[in-house]
Amino acid sequence: MFIFDAHLDLSMNAMEWNRDLRLPVHEIRKREVGMSDKPDRAKGMVSLDAMRKGNIGLCVATQIARYVKNDNILPGWNSPQQAWAQTQGQLAWYKTMEDLGEMIQITNFNQLNQHLENWKKTTIKKPIGYILSLEGADSIVTIDYLDKAYEQGLRAIGPAHYGPGTYAHGTDSIGGIGHKGKALLKRIEELNIILDATHLCDISFWETMSVYNGPIWASHNNCRSFVDHNRQFTDEQITELIQRNAVIGVALDAWMLVPNWIRGESTPKKMNVSLQQMIENIDHICQLAGDALHVGIGTDLDGGFGKEQAPTDMDTIADLQKIPIMLRKRGYSTQDIENIMHKNFINFLQRVWS
Questions:
Q1: Alpha helices in the chain, H assignment, sequence order
Q2: DSSP structural state of residue 223
Q3: What are the beta bridge partners of residue 134?
Q4: pLDDT tens digit string along 303-350?
């Protein structure tokens, strides 16, 4: 079945992890044996090759570069200008992949529909379609930079990531959006860029909902009813998004799937982490919505973690093809499964871009 993955940090892996994503996953792992600078070395799960094998022909692919002030202990860049420059390097990687026929940027209604048709027809190596998204808006030096990013193809943006940001407060921080955040949201709405609610802390989330009226989704966010942490959405937040015709992508980071995960100590095997927890999150959102029209897949695979923090029944991203079978066993119809695996996000884009 065709799959749309609403959140993959492809350029981060290529540029910061130094992974040649054209290679099969096992070749990337082989190159990293003995490396210890990252916890997921030799444990990556994503490559363009693996995506093709898993029929994942369309994704939301990110740029990401956090700006950190002197009192912020999180890793990041020391000025917004440096953060912007980092996103430009990431964009250059995507463009290089386009030059090689590995990827193709999707920015509008016609390009989206053409890509979907080409994916069905083509039998040779297919370029992966990607919608460019910015995870955390700190690299937007001034509002004018958002216009520059839009001209480069940016079509989705999350105002915050982890910690306090320039425009909003994110995961593990407390605070609102302020006048800069409101100005950014206004311009996002004017440009018809999709707002990604993922990572907004509770206060920033609800302040955003009070002033923003444009298209909104959550690319990779799970349910707080299963894991009680501010990174997840409460039922009230999920309901708010459903009422706004949003789609929520369910993620596969183990600590977001099971409670009481302890970084550096817990393992997927010990904690019984599997795709079953993803199914539970999908089903919970469907039960809140009363239908299967507001949930999709947003794996975040290789988003700073690999097999050491992923479901035990997955080796690579291609194993997402196990999900339709699991949903069918759960009682979901063929139409429901197609909606969850790709149509909900595609229909969302077609509606926003029409």
A1: 10-15, 25-32, 48-53, 80-99, 109-121, 143-151, 178-191, 202-211, 235-243, 275-289, 323-329, 334-338, 344-353
A2: B
A3: 63, 157
A4: 999 999 999 999 999 999 999 999 999 999 999 999 999 999 999 999
> What distance in Å separates the CA atoms of residue 289 and residue 284, rounded to the nearest whole number?
9
- Render the burial of 153-192: b for 16+ CB within 10 Å, e for the rest: bbbbbbbbbbbbbbbbbbbebebebeebbbebbeebbeee
Distance (Å, rounded) from C-alpha 94 to C-alpha 91? 5
Up-side HSE of residue 27: CA atoms within 13 Å toward CB? Answer: 10
Q: What is the mean pLDDT of residues 92-110?
A: 98
The answer to whether the CB of 16 falls within 8 A of the CB of 77 is: no
Q: Give the residues across from 218 on adjacent strands.
A: 248
Closest by CA to 51, choosing from 5, 82, 108, 104, is 5
pLDDT for position 129: 98
Do the beta carbons of residue 270 and residue 224 sit within 8 Å? Answer: no
In whole angstroms, give the CA distance from residue 229 to residue 199: 11
Scanning the structure block, which residue is given the tokens 């989206």? 112
For residues 14 and 73, the model is more confident at: 14
Interhelix angle 235-243/275-289, rounded to 10 degrees, is: 60
Quote the CA–CA distance of 150 and 188 in Å, as a whole number: 10
Helix (H, G, I), strand (E, B) or coil at 130: strand
Q: What is the DSSP letter of 180?
A: H
| pLDDT tens sequence across 178-206 | 999 999 999 999 999 999 999 999 999 99
CA–CA gap between residue 276 and residue 283 (Å, rounded): 10
For residue 174, give Cα distances in angstroms to 61, 205, 255, 260: 27, 11, 21, 22
The average pLDDT across 240-249 equals: 98
Average pLDDT of the chain is 96
Average pLDDT over residues 113-126: 89
Helix (H, G, I), strand (E, B) or coil at 182: helix
Does 163 score more than 80 pLDDT?
A: yes
